[in-house]
Amino acid sequence: MRKLLVLVTVLVTTFALSACSSNSDQPTSKVPDKPPVSSNKVNAADYQNGYGGFVFRVAGGSVWCTMNSVPNFVLCEQNEVDVTYKLPEANPTCEGAWGYQVRLWAYQPSQGKIADWYCSSGLYSDPAGAFDLPSGSSITVGDITCYAADVIVRCDNLKGQFMALGSDLYSLNN
């Protein structure tokens, strides 16, 4: 009976301490829903970077995105120093930074997934001077719409696949 009591005490203590851990595999915030129809739709032309892309910072936070209509994808980046989510396991072929850039295609690419991490050798775009996409606003370029919910971005393609990125969460839906 004493062994059983010790075992139960150890299990309860382990469970209680694991609940306090900051390295949880689960995000600490809720992934935003699809943008509501009533969201403030911004004029994409205001976000052009002069190189065929459309760049915005998410509500003044540490996430920024570049949308391209040709090819039809969005790549969002999270400032590395602000990440609190557990980094995903790195692709063994990646020789750059992993876990800070996510790409969502409008359609199935010839290789890879529609929503996936991107192996980076540096910033995809420079966020300096990028206009903010205010919280509650959305932007559409090509067949992708991105929505700012506080300092989290959620981008959806027409097929309902999405990615979301913020300093404390990510979500990929293929």
Structural description of this entry:
This protein has a six-stranded mixed sheet, with no helix packed on it. The chain has one domain (44-87, 94-173). The chain has 174 residues and is mostly beta strands. The chain contains one helix and twelve strands; from the N terminus they run H-E-E-E-E-E-E-E-E-E-E-E-E. The model is unreliable at 1-28 (pLDDT under 50). The N and C termini lie far apart (50 Å). 31% of the residues are buried.
Lateral arrangement of strands in the main beta sheet: 1-8-9-10-11-12
**Structure summary, number of beta strands:** 12
Low-confidence stretches: 1-28
How far from one another are the termini?
Answer: 50 Å
Task: Indicate how many domains the architecture comprises.
Answer: 1
The string of secondary-structure elements, in order, is: HEEEEEEEEEEEE
Gyration radius over CA:
19 Å
- The secondary-structure class comes to mainly beta
Average of pLDDT: 84
> How much of the sequence is in beta strands?
25-35%
Largest sheet: 6 strands, mixed
General form = globular
Question: What percent of residues adopt helix (DSSP H or I)?
Answer: 10-25%
Query: What is the count of DSSP helices, taking H or I runs of 4+ residues?
Result: 1
Entry keywords:
six-stranded mixed β-sheet, mainly beta, 1 helix, 174 residues, disordered N terminus
Can I get a quick summary?
By secondary structure, the protein is mainly beta.
Task: Outline the fold blueprint.
Blueprint: H1 2-19, E1 40-41, E2 53-58, E3 63-68, E4 73-78, E5 101-105, E6 115-117, E7 131-133, E8 137-141, E9 144-149, E10 152-157, E11 162-166, E12 169-173
Parallel strand pairs: 1-8, 2-7
Antiparallel strand pairs: 2-3, 3-4, 4-5, 5-6, 8-9, 9-10, 10-11, 11-12
